[in-house]
């Protein structure tokens, strides 16, 4: 597919060359307290627009603000008012927040991200990633807002995507390495040291799973014999004893056929346990409930099966219909720029009440691209690369059996974005009419969805008539300042640099 390029010279907004790309005079609504520059490890301030009348804000020093804004967009609205602010420890950034009103009680749930150094981490990066789910509530009129819930998750990689469900009942995370809740109320610094000392050790066991069974592998001491091993299977429980010492005991995540489950000593001096699932097809997020001593090994065949299920959503044709019966696409041979070396990520859903994992989806080699808010009443969508295309997924927290809905396909976007080595931000229009990405400096790339052609075109290789063509446009900013922010609407792109806010008119039909 030939994609023509067009460079668009852009005006700096202060010049106001045309009505479509002009902004009015800015009006101050809030100012951070002075003196914040005295903090040595201060982060950049971060803000999240929680609802049309509420905002959550971090000043970069470790203090969280809840601000009432009134109905934003009303020129007569007053300045923003601080309704809550509290010091929460080390600096953090805000990555998501929602506003909830239940039985006259108003709550704002926020998701905070911290990255802290771990001195005991000798094998990893030396840092620990924390996600903190903080809920601020006011029960009755006249009372003050206060923290009513504070739960913490730990992980070893920064999440690609993390968002609280719109009803506040759960949390979804896309990450390279899994997250787990730590015990609420305990000394987090002390628990971090204990957890880290355990992570430095080798896992106690390894486990894999298929749709029908699970396999657990345990390394045995060199002088172990069959008489040293005792394994007891119950429908919902397992008990393993080695040389009179309890090795692993606890409730299984789901039921097993205990009479058909077996164990055997392998030639490499390891104990292999086979557990037959009672509920075939159910994916277990953990083997023994609450046990963190094992390591889950992902099966490449499962990754391939997931990719096969998604294949019908991509096609070499433009704007494919997922419901139309047709064979899977024959993806063209990938070039060197298409290869990405990140290992597989997972999508996990955590229950807000039990803090347990309820759903785990292995994304395999489907590279995470970006997230976008399509419907303010729903969770943010996330976009994954699948073969040469990009698929947009909408989480649906109310659907227990079908929680992620495919809502749009960006043809060939996965292919064309792979060659952009300096890309910094990625976004798409809420109506899916275009996707856009920007580099660190100057250039913005706009990829429009296929549209009908006014003239007759023919494919030179196949001789067939081409009815629709996708377009790529390149906008070059009149500045060399770094790009700090990037936001897409159906009609316009907003690009923020250190000194200017640029506005690009993308769609003129609206």
TrEMBL record:
PROSITE patterns: CS. Residues 200-288 form the CS domain. It is found in: Cytoplasm; Nucleus. Keywords: Cytoplasm, Nucleus. SUPFAM superfamilies: HSP20-like chaperones. This is NudC domain-containing protein 1. It comes from Vicugna pacos (Alpaca). The lineage of its organism: Eukaryota, Metazoa, Chordata, Craniata, Vertebrata.
């Amino acid at each position: 597919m030939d994609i023509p390029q067009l460079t668009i010279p852009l005006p700096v907004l202060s010049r106001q060359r045309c009505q479509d790309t002009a902004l009015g005079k800015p009006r101050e609504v809030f100012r951070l307290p002075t003196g914040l520059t005295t903090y040595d490890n201060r982060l950049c301030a971060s803000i999240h627009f929680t609802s049309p009348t509420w905002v959550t804000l971090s000043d970069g020093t470790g203090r969280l603000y809840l601000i009432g804004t009134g109905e934003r967009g009303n020129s007569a609205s007053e300045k923003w008012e601080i309704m809550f602010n509290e010091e929460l420890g080390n600096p953090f950034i805000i990555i998501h927040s929602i506003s909830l009103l239940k039985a006259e009680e108003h709550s704002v749930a926020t998701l905070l991200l911290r990255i802290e150094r771990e001195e005991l981490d000798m094998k990893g990066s030396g840092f620990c990633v924390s996600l903190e789910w903080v809920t601020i509530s006011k029960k009755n009129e006249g009372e003050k807002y206060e923290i009513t819930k504070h739960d913490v998750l730990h992980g070893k990689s920064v999440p690609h995507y993390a968002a609280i469900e719109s009803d506040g009942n759960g949390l979804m995370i896309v990450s390279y390495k899994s997250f787990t809740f730590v015990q609420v109320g305990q000394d987090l610094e002390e628990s971090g040291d204990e957890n880290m000392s355990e992570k430095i050790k080798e896992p106690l066991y390894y486990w894999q799973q298929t749709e029908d069974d699970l396999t657990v592998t345990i390394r045995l001491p060199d002088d172990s014999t069959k008489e040293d091993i005792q394994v007891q299977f119950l429908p919902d429980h397992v008990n393993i004893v080695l040389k009179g010492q309890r090795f692993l005991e606890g409730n299984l995540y789901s039921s097993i056929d205990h009479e058909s489950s077996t164990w055997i000593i392998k030639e490499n001096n390891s104990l292999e346990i086979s557990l037959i699932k009672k509920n075939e097809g159910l994916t277990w997020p953990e083997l023994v409930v609450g046990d963190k001593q094992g390591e889950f090994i992902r099966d490449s065949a499962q990754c391939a099966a997931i990719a096969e299920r998604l294949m019908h959503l991509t096609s070499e044709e433009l704007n494919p219909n997922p419901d139309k019966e047709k064979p899977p696409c024959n993806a063209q041979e990938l070039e060197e720029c298409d290869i990405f070396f990140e290992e597989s990520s997972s999508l996990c859903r955590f229950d807000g009440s039990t803090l347990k994992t309820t759903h785990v989806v292995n994304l395999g080699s489907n590279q995470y691209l970006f997230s976008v808010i399509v419907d303010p009443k729903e969770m943010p969508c996330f976009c994954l690369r699948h073969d040469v295309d990009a698929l947009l997924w909408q989480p649906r927290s109310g659907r227990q059996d079908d929680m992620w809905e495919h809502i749009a396909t960006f043809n060939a976007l996965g292919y064309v974005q792979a060659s952009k080595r300096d890309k910094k931000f990625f976004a798409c229009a809420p109506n899916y009419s275009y996707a856009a990405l920007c580099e660190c400096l100057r250039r913005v790339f706009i990829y429009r969805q296929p549209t009908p052609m006014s003239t007759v075109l023919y494919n030179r290789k196949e001789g067939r008539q081409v009815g629709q063509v996708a377009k790529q446009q390149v906008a070059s900013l009149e500045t060399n300042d770094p790009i700090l922010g990037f936001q897409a609407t159906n009609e316009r792109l907003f690009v923020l640099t250190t000194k200017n806010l640029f506005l690009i008119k993308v769609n003129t039909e609206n």
